[in-house]
Amino acid sequence: MKAWRFHEFGSLDNLRLDEISSPEPGPGEVLLRVEFAALNPADAYLIIGKYPRAGTPPMSVGRDGCAIVEVPRVGGRFKKGDRVVILRSDIGVGRDGTLAQCIAAPEDCLAPLPEGWTSEEGAAAPLVFLTAWQALVEKGGVEAGQTVLVTGASGGVGTAAVTLGKAFNARVIALSRSAEKRDRLRALGADIVLDSSDPDLEQRAKDALHGGRVDLVVENLGGPFLQTSINLARERGRILVVGLLAGLTAEIILGTIIFKQIRIEGVQVGAYTPQGAQAVWSKIVRKLDEVRARPLIDQVFPLREVREAFAYLAAGAMGKVLVDMRGQ
Ligand SMILES: NC(=O)c1ccc[n+]([C@@H]2O[C@H](COP(=O)([O-])OP(=O)(O)OC[C@H]3O[C@@H](n4cnc5c(N)ncnc54)[C@H](OP(=O)(O)O)[C@@H]3O)[C@@H](O)[C@H]2O)c1
User: Fold this and answer.
1) What is the pLDDT of residues 9-50, one digit of tens each?
2) Distance from residue 149's CA to the centre of ligand 1 (Å)
3) What's this model's pTM, rounded to 2 decimal places?
4) What is the C-alpha separation between 48 and 70, in angstroms, rounded?
5) Which domains does the chain have, with CATH numbers?
6) Pocket-testing residue among 163, 220, 244, ligand 1, by greatest number of atoms within 8 A of Cβ
């Protein structure tokens, strides 16, 4: 079988399409034939050596995806041929990930492909929807009628947060640098869309809020955006820090946090236990079914174009970027 593996840390150029034998599933594991792998920015951080935890090269990255059970576990939940989605686990972090045609996976990190979903939709949803749910629902306590600001809204986590925010009947403000993607965010349900590269972003947001402020922020960008988020938050507002695409560090005015009693909290999808991820995933699928929504897929790249797929993701996708692992 084929597997995209990096052979040393440092650069995406270290990725090679290797021909290797299929892994042997360990106790409690099944063997999966991966159909579609989802890319996440953290995969690139891991390869270049900027992720806090990683397995030993050569290894494949890819944290989530959709797959077919090839060798089930004796007495297990799945049978040969079942389609499953891979929830957040050690896959693609400490052990081989979904950018391989066959992987061994603990059964407890798998869920059946939701009824009526395509394999592509199943691959696109797990990591970003679990993250958006932890931010908005578990840590943010989102309620109908609240105002939610989503920075980096066009990305995987961003589109998931917009979709979930609308599913909870919140008013959603979505940021993107691209006019075309702002139109698509509006079509996804965002109530207000703003240009994140506008130097007057904060004033434009305040004007759009007619003097109001936001209850929650899903902060995917970090860097200088964090202070803008703090300025736009209401008293006792919450900022859920998910990502750091615009900067690993941020200079912030502590006085504003003190006076407004803002709560800034980190989101960590990797903190879910397998049981926790399963329980939350069921709620996500129910919620999406309730509002007839599905994960948004931007582009599916063929197996051989993984480097192009990573470059496309880094340039700013609209939803998820997938790799079709079924090719030659
Ligand atoms: N904490 C966790 O557990 C967790 C889980 C998943 C992801 N993350 C992190 O969350 C962040 C978002 O992930 P994602 O999967 O949504 O990423 P993504 O799909 O790459 O999308 C992020 C979006 O942010 C915008 N963007 C990127 N760089 C920017 C910059 N320098 N300035 C302004 N906007 C920029 C782009 O939108 P426009 O081009 O439209 O502006 C891009 O489409 C990443 O840092 C990721 O590592 C964290």
Assistant:
1) 999 999 999 999 999 999 999 999 999 999 999 999 999 999
2) 14
3) 0.98
4) 32
5) 2-124+295-324 (3.90.180.10), 127-269 (3.40.50.720)
6) 220
